[in-house]
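Structure, all two chains, one model.
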Amino acid sequence: AQRVTQPEKLLSVFKGAPVELKCNYSYSGSPELFWYVQYSRQRLQLLLRHISRESIKGFTADLNKGETSFHLKKPFAQEEDSAMYYCALKRYMNNNAGNMLTFGGGTRLMVKP
Amino acid sequence: DVKVTQSSRYLVKRTGEKVFLECVQDMDHENMFWYRQDPGLGLRLIYFSYDVKMKEKGDIPEGYSVSREKKERFSLILESASTNQTSMYLCASSSPRSVYEQYFGPGTRLTVT
């Protein structure tokens, strides 16, 4: 089964503290994973994808196939990082309709001053 | 600036009513999606379309139908609204070459009483 699990519904940290948003997946093929973010009163948008190995807004995420994880990390959280974060897995639809995304349940990050 | 628009931000309907949610994108994308967003459950795919008049069921299609008569417009229909369909509905679009980068609309918060 193709599944994405984000074990924490809410993560609260102080400004300047490190933050790690957890994401675990189950997928039988070669996984492609992404992080999406939704700031207050804004649309859901792509934050980063594992294949590009980029750092966006100070966030990085490494795909660990052994642990089937794709945790999102930032060394020093900022108040403007407060948002809802979703981990997503690219999956192939069995009916040949193409590739889709499966989203996790989301983690709300609150960065306190 | 890419745009996905949804016909209503807030909608209140009565049980048993037929409900139409409209989504329009101006990016000439082939793929369009309807999700519902619920706390703790994340985004769940209801239906998607990869071309005009083409549609495929997602993970939770029961109680919903869709229509795509034009490339830019994708409609979600609740034939007979029920209280368990109270939710935030998100529309998205993407190019088939980069299905992972989905562009989302602002959402429609539907309340069924």
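Chain B touches chain A at residues 4, 31, 33, 35, 39-45, 48, 50, 56, 58, 90, 92, 96, 99-107 (CB under 8 Å).
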